Amino acid sequence: MSCSIARSLEQIGEWWTLLIIREAFFGTRRFGAFQANLGIAPNVLTQRLQDLVGHGILEITASSENGRALDYGLTDKGRDLFPLIVALAQWGDRHAAAPEGPPVRIVERRSGDDVAPITLRSSGNGRALGLHEVTVAPGPGATPQQLAYFERVRQRQAEKAAAREAGPQTQDRQDQADRKG
Question: What is the CA radius of gyration of the chain?
Answer without folding.
Answer: 22
